[in-house]
Amino acid sequence: MSLAMSRNDLAEYMAQIFPQVHRDFVIEELHEDSIVMRLVVEDRHLRPGGTVSGPSMFGLADVSVYALILARKGRLSLAVTTNSSLDFLRKPLGGKDMIAHCRMLKLGRSLAVGDVLMFSEGSDKPVARATMTYSLPPEGSAAAAFG
C-alpha cells in the first residue's frame, strides 16, 4: 500500500484539524510503514524537575500513530484511540525536543495498531515506549469522509 498523503499534505491537514497544537509537532520523516515525529519541547511540556511530562510524551505517541494512519488512509479525522500502553524507561532530558519513531504494526479496515519509541533529541537511549490502538470508521461512511 502506498501513502495517501504526502508529508506536506499531512502537515497542512494536521494544522487544519488541530490548530491548537499543530506547532508542537513536526513531521521529520514519512515512509509507508513509519513516521518520525518531533515534539518541540517548551516550558509548558515540562514537569517539576525539568523533565518532559508524561502527558506530553503520551501526546507525542498518540499524534505519531494518528498521523501515520492519516498518511496511509487519507483524511480520516474521526479515527479514535481505543487503547494505549505507555512504558516510561528513563528520564527524558529537559530542554531537548522529543523524537518519536513510530511504525505501523497493523492497519486494517477497522483497527490500526502502532508502536512508538521516544527519545530525547541527541540520545540513542529510548525514554519511553508506547503501543496505540485506533478504531477506524467504516470505509464509505460519513464519519470516514469527515474533514
From TrEMBL:
Hydrolase as UniProt keyword: yes
Domain Thioesterase: start-end pairs: 49-124
Which is one Pfam family of this protein? Answer: 4HBT
Q: Where are the transmembrane segments?
A: none
Task: Give one GO term, molecular function aspect.
Answer: acyl-CoA hydrolase activity
Entry-linked CDD domains: PaaI_thioesterase
- This chain belongs to the protein called Thioesterase
The answer to whether the entry has keyword Transport is no
This protein's species is Ruegeria profundi
Gene3D superfamilies linked: Hotdog Thioesterase
Q: Which UniProt keywords apply?
A: Hydrolase
